[in-house]
Here is the input.
Amino acid sequence: MKPQVRPANPRFSSGPCTKRPSWTSDNLKDACLGRSHRSVVGKAKLAEVITRSRAILSIPDDWRIGIVPASDTGAFEMAMWSLLGARGVDAFAWESFGSGWVTDIEKQLKIEDLRIFTADYGAIPDFSAADPSRDIVFAWNGTTSGARVPDAGWIADDRTGLTLCDATSAVFAMALPWEKLDVATWSWQKVMGGEAQHGMIVLSPRAVERLESYTPPWPLPKIFRMTSGGKLIEGIFRGETINTPSMLCVEDALDGLKWSDTVGGLKGLIARSERNLAAITDWVGRTEWVDFLVSDAAARSSTSVCLKIVAPWFEALDADAKAAAPKAMVKLLEDEGAGFDLDGYRDAPPGLRVWAGATVETADLQALFPWLDWAAETVAGELGA
Here is the structure.
């Protein structure tokens, strides 16, 4: 039967992700609107995003943190175009965004000394193949596959190459070993539920050394340039952004960072996300028609949780019908106001994707599960199963 209780917040999108609990637009009343982002007050707001991020994430004092254009994509492209080419590259990809970075390295930067390690959706590559003398490019969390890096033991402490990590749906939800990461990037609209616009980039001292000693053989667009005259542009890492930011988005990013203090900082944020994953794991364990896309529990994301349909009625469908069935479920849920944006990523195997990051309340997931069961049963009935 159709459930009677709906999630209080039915937003489960994997990006932009739901706002923090109790968020209202009143939280943005102190936004620096109608003022230059280069004014004293404007730069102070931007610098506060940096200092609060450093404090919450325990990023070492000598790691630079900058706010850069074009969300996580812009931040990671900036890193690749500015740093790669000095050494051979080992690139790891197991879902859509990681594959996109590989395409850029291979087709756009045309780096010939490139080794590519891949895995199908739901699995992760063999990270032990990484060569510490080469640069390493990878995503910590596969947002479109639900598979994350289980640990960082495979990254050598005495490496001579750099590690470039796309951490956008991991940071603030998973413990990142900063001493292992020479570059890390993320966006405001993921785990903290901010508004999409600018991204964040973190550089280790070794990454800064590379920037100041290496000039790539390709032209760098203005928004990618982090050095001038062979020296780091320090202003980028003090809130002097390369491209004009939305100060409304900046205020929203600050709001999320301040909220994190009220739930116990990083430990509290991680606990909220892991608690959500535990709730999904419990439901999957007692539900016959669904399973995780990622079979290895150690590699399952606690933010972008990807699910596959394993019911006999689904397995009997042809490829087109398999692609259509989850979409039919998603439409039912959206029509009922019970859950929004739950379809799997377009390049992933047909299935569902549930965002379970820190801004999601476990109670809303618990209310969602009966609706997922109802949607699966309804679609099965419509197919005559």
